[in-house]
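To the structural biology subgroup,

Please find below the input and predicted structure for K+/H+ antiporter subunit F, which we are adding to the shared reference set this quarter. The sequence is reproduced verbatim from the submission form. If anyone notices a discrepancy with their own records, reply to this email rather than editing the shared folder directly, so we keep one authoritative version.
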Amino acid sequence: MLGTLLQIAFLLFSLAILMNFWRLIKGPDLPDRILALDTIYINSLALLLLLGLYQNTQTYFEAALLIAMFGFVGTIAAGKFLLRGDLIE
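Predicted structure (tokenized):
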């Protein structure tokens, strides 16, 4: 039962990533594309966590933690770029 639910969730998160890639390509402006990238990394984080639950291993949880840290830094850098136009002051 849990395996079936994890497979359904895996399918739904994969579909969400595909829709986010569509927004990344067709985004009318830069903030929409940055938001699409942000949701792509959040959904990939969820996929890694689901895969870790499905395979009953902790390795994927550590990889998800690394993706979360890099995604946070990337979001901060993108926001700073949108506000000021440069990353380094």
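Summary notes: The two ends are 54 Å apart (CA to CA). Residues 2-84 form a domain with the Helix Hairpins fold (CATH 1.10.287).

Regards,
Lab coordination
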